[in-house]
Design goal:
disordered N terminus; globular; 291 residues; Rossmann fold; single chain; 7 strands; 23% strand
Length: 291
C-alpha cells in the first residue's frame, strides 16, 4: 500500500480540499456543502458503482466520516429500503446532518452517531452491514489497515465497501489565475504539494490485504468554475484556505497575486476554473473468506 501523507488533523473525518481544517473552522461546513453540489458527478458515479457491485438491495449502510451528510442523504435516497448509520467525530456535523435528514424527510432512516473512526465504531452499528461508504475519510484515520479490517468484519458476505479519495491531479485555468502572473496556479499547486496537500492514498493493495475481492478503481472528474455562483464561492473559499497554508512559501508578488485572485472571486469579476480527479474503489467481502 502507498501510505497516505500523515498530518495532524483536528477536523471531522471526510474533509475535502487541499489544506488543513483548523479547529473550530466555521467555513468548513460551507465548503463541504459546496463540494457536494460541485461533486455531484463523482457522487453519482460512486453510487452507480456501489449498485453494480452489490448482489442485493442494501438494508443496512454505514457512512464512515459523514461530514455534513451529503453521502448519507444520497445513499438514503438511492437505496430507499436502507437504514443509514452516519458516523462522524464532530458534534456540529452530526447536528447539521440530523437537521438536514429531518428536512429531507429521511430522519426515520438516517441515524447520525458521534463516533470516532479510530475507536470501536462497529460497536455503534447494527451488524451485518450491506454497504460501507468512506468518502474522503480513510486517509484521516490513524491506522487505515485497522479500519479496513473492521469494515471487512462488519460487512456481511457479499457486502461492499466504497472508498472515495482525492488524486494529485489538480489544475487551474487560466494558469495565472487571471492575475497576469504567469504560472501562479501551478505555483499554488506545487507549494501545496510540498506541504503534502492534497492528501492522497492508493488503497487497492490495502483493500486486497484486508481480504476484499473484486477490487475495482474508477476515476471521476471534479470541477469548479465561475460559471456558477456555487463554483465562484467554492473557489474563493478554496483559495483563501490554501493561502493560509502556503502564504509563507510564496513571494510577495505571488502572495499579492493570490490575494487579487480571491478579491476578484469575491467581487464576481473573475473568470476561473479548477479541475481535479477523484478515485472511487469498490471492494467486496467474499462469501467465504479468511484474512
Amino acid at each position: 500500500m502507498t501510505q497516505p501523507h500523515t498530518h495532524e488533523h483536528h477536523s471531522h473525518h471526510g474533509r475535502p480540499g487541499h489544506g488543513p481544517a483548523p479547529e473550530h473552522d466555521t467555513g468548513l461546513a460551507e465548503i463541504l456543502d459546496l463540494d457536494a453540489v460541485l461533486g455531484a458527478p463523482v457522487l453519482d458515479a460512486a453510487l452507480d458503482a456501489a449498485s453494480g457491485a452489490l448482489d442485493a438491495e442494501p438494508t443496512t449502510i454505514v457512512d464512515l466520516g459523514s461530514g455534513t451528510g451529503t453521502g448519507t442523504l444520497a445513499l438514503a435516497r438511492r437505496f430507499d429500503r436502507a437504514r443509514v448509520h452516519s458516523l462522524d467525530a464532530s458534534p456540529a456535523m452530526i447536528e447539521r446532518l440530523r437537521a438536514s435528514a429531518a428536512e429531507a424527510g429521511l430522519g426515520d432512516r438516517v441515524q447520525p452517531q458521534l463516533v470516532d473512526l479510530d475507536g470501536d465504531w462497529p460497536n455503534a452499528v447494527t451488524a451485518p452491514i450491506d454497504l460501507a461508504w468512506a468518502a474522503l475519510s480513510l486517509h484521516h484515520v490513524t491506522d487505515p489497515a485497522v479500519v479496513l479490517g473492521q469494515a471487512f468484519d462488519a460487512l456481511r458476505p457479499g457486502g461492499v465497501l466504497v472508498v472515495i479519495e482525492m488524486t494529485a491531479a489538480t489544475s487551474y485555468r487560466p494558469t495565472d489565475l487571471g492575475t497576469g502572473i504567469a504560472g501562479l496556479g501551478d505555483r499554488v499547486v506545487s507549494a501545496l504539494a510540498e506541504r503534502g496537500y492534497p492528501v492522497t492514498a492508493e488503497w487497492t493493495q490495502a483493500l486486497q490485504q484486508a481480504g476484499f475481492v473484486d477490487v475495482e478503481r474508477r476515476e471521476a472528474a471534479f470541477a469548479a468554475s465561475t460559471d456558477t455562483s456555487e463554483g465562484t464561492r467554492y473557489l474563493a473559499l478554496h483559495l483563501t484556505r490554501n493561502r493560509d497554508v502556503i502564504g509563507d512559501d510564496l513571494s510577495a508578488d505571488e502572495l499579492a497575486g493570490l490575494d487579487s485572485a480571491v478579491a476578484a472571486l469575491e467581487h464576481g469579476t473573475a473568470g476561473l476554473a479548477f479541475e481535479s480527479t477523484r478515485f472511487i474503489w469498490t471492494a467486496t467481502r467474499p462469501a467465504e473468506a479468511q484474512r
